């Protein structure tokens, strides 16, 4: 689940900072 959410975050943001980029995007969407 964690990896899946991370992948979605990265794709949605467009490789802002990989893992951290995904986390930040997920937080913003959440």
Automatic annotation (TrEMBL):
Residues 8-30 form the Ketopantoate reductase N-terminal domain. InterPro entries: KPR_N. Pfam families: ApbA. This is Ketopantoate reductase N-terminal domain-containing protein.
């Amino acid at each position: 689940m964690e990896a899946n959410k991370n992948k979605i975050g990265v794709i949605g943001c467009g490789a802002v900072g990989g893992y951290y980029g995904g986390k930040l995007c997920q937080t913003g969407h959440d």
